[in-house]
């Protein structure tokens, strides 16, 4: 049991995710009128009265599930109930008391947890007439409107009396797992953290909200984030897909390391190549992992690397690995790559070393560029940035810049990371 954690539970579409977003004061969970949007457990921290606590949002419960997805959601909710120190059962005041509300309350009691009822949508006129029905579930009922911030402070005052505050921690480096739907992202997350955290199904788009967990690699803490699948093209059949992809893009923006997961059965696509370019252009450390390699022979795996190198020649410095998330193949090697590319992203070459090697670097360039280059400095990490002073005005073509980047890599590494160069005119 986590004495700092409160869990939000309830039927689908009662407003749990809206309440979750209200409490943490940012839009993390996707909220829509369509039921069943949230499926996995979503964790976050929140502050109240200058103290910090933890909260988990859960999927809508059907106490008599009739599909695999509903069974898995119930399993995730039960895990959250067992893990949390306090429970908030969210109900819909507008629709009144539902038989499932009673079953959920009994389920919480069965697990011997203290809980209150958050009677949501109280801002609707008809809802006020239904409010008293919920005292049948618990004598502590809090009328709220998550959408309009009504009654939230009173609810939080009650919740936090049952919780132990936590210390604010420095944010660990973030690893975002991205890829097309059903490529095995959730399976990889579960494998990395060594437990069944993310809901797994053969149905594409099972993951809709990013899921965050912590792991340690060689003593270094990392936050691993499973993200919704990236569809081909720009058009989405459902509005929820659009919001899910926006969440994925935000996680990539905030990530330090990105693992692009590719399903071997589908192979490398134009979408994958575009993602590689986009991730590198954003200054993120990148690893390309081909999943489901347990179906390959060693000869086929070798051919895979050759094919990847052929189509990803512009990203020759990015580690490529064949894994099997479900079987655990090459997972330790993948974790070594994570540690390596993260270290490279934060590597700062001493000024004296660059100065000492500068004549050798210049001699490796073509004659015209070698003549023009006067000084090379590393001016940034995460992402890697260099400043190059040159004499004479004029355009530095793309091939010249690529040539310099290759030479810098030959001397300094920076595996898995793009090098950004700013060209400055020398004053001398």
Overall description:
The structure is a single chain. The chain has 428 residues and is α/β, with parallel strands linked by helices. The chain has three domains: 2-160, P-loop containing nucleotide triphosphate hydrolases (Rossmann fold, 3-Layer(aba) Sandwich); 174-345, P-loop containing nucleotide triphosphate hydrolases (Rossmann fold), CATH 3.40.50; 351-425, K homology (KH) domain (GMP Synthetase, Chain A, domain 3), CATH 3.30.300.20. The chain contains 13 helices and 15 strands. It has helices at 16-24, 68-83, 99-110, 127-130, 152-160, 185-193, 239-254, 270-281, 298-311, 331-345, 351-363, 367-372, 398-412; strands spanning 2-10, 42-48, 51-57, 84-92, 115-120, 141-143, 174-179, 211-217, 220-226, 257-263, 285-291, 320-322, 373-380, 384-390, 419-425. The chain has a six-stranded mixed beta sheet with strand order 2-3-1-4-5-6, with helices on both faces. Strand 10, helix 8 and strand 11 form a beta-alpha-beta unit. The chain is elongated. Residues 30-38, 198-208 and 234-241 have low confidence and may be disordered.
Name the features.
Rossmann fold, GMP Synthetase, Chain A, domain 3, 3 domains, six-stranded mixed beta sheet
> CATH H-level name of the largest domain... which superfamily?
P-loop containing nucleotide triphosphate hydrolases
How far apart are the termini? 66 Å
Shape: elongated
Radius of gyration: 26 Å
Number of domains: 3
Name the structural class.
alpha/beta
Mean pLDDT: 85
- Main sheet: strands, sense, barrel: 6 strands, mixed
Give the strand order, joined by hyphens, for the main sheet: 2-3-1-4-5-6
Number of beta strands: 15
